[in-house]
Amino acid sequence: MRYWFATSLIAWGVLGVAGVYWYPLHWYSASTILFAAGIGCLANWLRNRSFHCVITGPLFLIAAILFLVGSLGLARVHVSLVWSLLIVGTGVAFLLEWKHAKRSASYYRVGDQRTTISYSAATLVFSVAGAMASMLFFLIRSFRATRSFA
User: Fold this and answer.
1) Would the pLDDT of 77 be above 60?
2) pLDDT per residue over 126-139, tens digit each?
3) Which of 10, 16, 31, 129 is the most exposed place for a label (fewest CB within 10 A)?
């Protein structure tokens, strides 16, 4: 969990700095947050072989690419559909891990499924927080764009 979070946080920081120079990757955009989460998942899979990361890593990266394409105006992206599929896909990944992945007791350090549940909760919270932040900033930006200054 700490490795995933640290890697995601570093990736988010680097992408956020890049967003200063290229606006579609600004620090609060959905694509930046999802790229960071996807990079964290792939790094976590390479280090810890977490089963859910095989599914959620590419899922986050695909969603990030979709949001980036949408913010660049290259295609119309249905934001609510992408977020819905992302949340369902993340839930399915953790359900599959909980049901089918075999781990040694040393992996969990507590010898039970509580660690998997905390990974699931943290990833879901991170995804939902990113979604809420992106939607909030989108609504603020839309409101400012539609106000007339007479």
Assistant:
1) yes
2) 666 666 666 666 55
3) 129
Taking alpha carbons only, the member of 37, 115, 26 closest to residue 83 is: 37
Which residues, 6+ apart, have CB-to-CB distance to 56 below 8 Å?
A: 37, 38, 41, 89, 90, 93, 123
Q: What is the CA radius of gyration of the chain?
A: 17
Find out whether 45 and 54 touch, Cβ atoms under 8 Å. yes
pLDDT in tens, 36-49: 989 888 888 888 77
pTM of the model: 0.65
> 64, 53 in Cβ contact below 8 A?
no
DSSP 5-31: HHHHHHHHHHHHHHHHHSGGG-TTSHH
Tokens of 39: 């990079």
**What's CA 10's distance to the chain center, in Å?**
14
